[in-house]
Design goal:
Blueprint lengths: L2 E2 L10 H10 L11 H21 L6 E4 L2 H9 L6 E4 L4 H4 L6 E3 L9 H10 L5 E3 L13 H10 L3 E5 L11 H4 L3 E5 L10 E5 L25 H17 L3 H18 L16 E5 L5 H10 L2 E2 L15 H5 L3 H4 L2 E5 L6 H17 L1
Parallel strand pairs: 1-10, 3-4, 3-5, 5-6, 6-7
Antiparallel strand pairs: 2-8, 7-8, 9-11
């Protein structure tokens, strides 16, 4: 039996999303067409928009469908803003969008340095964009967005959050948060790949990255990805229907971590002592590189990762751990991330495999 522990890279497709996508694949469907087929497609798009908005705590008209979180980040950051301020532990989809951005330091646990952020906000021209993720994709560390938003607002800046890893795991309420922009993605919650959304505060000017038709109210031209959109919507609805599964996953991860630490006291779990996603464990195995661990686990039928999935398919040293001052541990760290289909029996097998490999080292 193969076991999947790489939900932070992509979650298995939910049956609800698969069924919705199959149903949408049949008839010809361009949501911009005025005939019956087009009207039916438009209805499906707007239904999904309401479903995603409900999960995000936003108004439907604030949801702009994109090709994924990367495009949503680009739309948020490649604006006519004087400057960009972001953290050193952001996803590369944010860092590469703004290579000249002021990067805020983080503490050893991975949480953002509020004093450094305040200095950067004071130095930046009014109207700059502050971009801080909701939760880190590698360590699971949850950033204090309330503090980030307060500091940025005090200096007249816009605030964006890459909430791709937070969607479905944190109680996101865009309307109440004070955010101006928020990026989300479908495949992190059991929807299909290739679909995401930028949640943009109503009234905020848009800056499309492409030109063409008037889709998404002229904010993101191009014929809508109907099957992806309905799959995203169905996954969002399924997340809301199942309720909060994070306490269950939190207990499974903490039990796993305690079992490892009891027999391997030199193992290190990142993000301990600060708020962390219940589904994520970043842990070192002294004596075994991340690449060796991943291959060994794969041979044992267990899928894990060393952090963010990259286009090369190779293990790279984590810029997140480096920014946390963990250069010595970085190459020996793997990420274990669970989700909606994970079971206690799978965690038992994970722990047994981890300890067997550790003892070989």
């Amino acid at each position: 039996m193969n076991i999947y522990f790489d939900y932070n890279a992509t979650a298995p497709l939910r049956p609800e999303a698969r069924d919705a996508m199959v149903a949408a694949l049949g008839p010809p469907a361009n949501p911009s067409s005025v005939h019956g087929f087009g009207q039916d497609a438009r209805f499906k798009v707007e239904t999904a928009r309401r479903q995603v908005a409900a999960l995000c705590g936003a108004m439907p008209e604030e949801v702009i469908f994109t090709s994924g979180g990367t495009e949503a980040n680009a739309m948020a950051l490649l604006r006519r803003a004087p400057s960009v301020i972001t953290s050193a532990v952001e996803h590369v989809a944010v860092l590469d969008c703004a290579p000249e951005a002021r990067r805020i330091a983080v503490h050893g646990d991975g949480s953002i340095d509020g004093d450094d952020l305040a200095r950067a906000c004071a130095d930046a021209p009014e109207g700059s964009v502050v971009s801080v993720m909701a939760a880190n994709n590698e360590t699971g560390v949850i950033q204090p967005l309330d503090d980030v938003i307060r500091i940025a607002r005090d200096h007249g800046h816009l605030v964006h959050s890459d909430a791709v890893q937070g969607l479905g795991k944190l109680s996101l309420d865009f309307a109440a948060s004070g955010l101006d922009l928020m990026s989300v993605s479908g495949h992190k919650i059991g929807g299909p790949t290739g679909i995401g959304a930028l949640i943009q505060r109503e009234g905020l000017a848009s800056h499309p990255r492409t030109h063409g038709g008037g889709q998404e109210k002229n904010r993101r031209p191009g014929t809508e990805n109907l099957t992806g959109i309905v799959g995203f919507g169905a996954a969002a609805q399924a997340v809301m229907a199942e309720g909060d599964i994070m306490p269950r996953l939190h207990a499974l991860h903490r039990d796993f971590e305690a079992r490892i630490k009891a027999e391997a006291p030199d193992a290190h779990v990142f993000g301990n002592g600060c708020p962390r996603l219940g589904n994520t464990t970043a842990i070192t195995m002294p004596g075994k590189t991340a690449e060796t661990q991943i291959m060994a686990f794969d041979l044992a039928g267990i899928s894990i990762s060393a952090g963010a999935a990259c286009s090369s398919g190779k293990v790279k040293t984590s810029h997140v751990l480096m920014a946390m001052g963990e250069a010595e541990r970085a190459d020996f760290t793997v990420r274990i991330s669970s989700g909606w289909a994970s079971t206690e029996a799978e965690f038992d097998r994970l722990a047994e495999t981890w300890l067997k490999l550790y003892k070989q080292a």
